[in-house]
Amino acid sequence: MSLHLQPVRVATSSDDSESQLVFAEGFLVAMLVHLSEQHEDDAGRWFLEAGFGRIPSRDHPTFLDLDEAQTWIRQQLGNAYVS
Question: What is the mean pLDDT of residues 51-74?
C-alpha cells in the first residue's frame, strides 16, 4: 500500500506546528504532528493528531519517527486501500 505524506503547518497555541497529512491511495487517512520541546520526554516524536476511517484516533499514539508512524498506519489500514 502506498502512503503519501504532505507537509503542512498547523495553527496551534503551542510550538507544534510541523505536521504531515497522510494519504493512502488518494484518501486522507491521518494527520501527524511533530512534538516540540514543550513535551519534554516526547519531544521530537510524531503524534497522531487525527485519524480517519480505519485509523483510530482515540488512542493518539506517538512514534519515534515517520517510518514507524507509516508502518503503524499501514497495519491499521490492512487491505482497505489496496488497488
Answer: 90
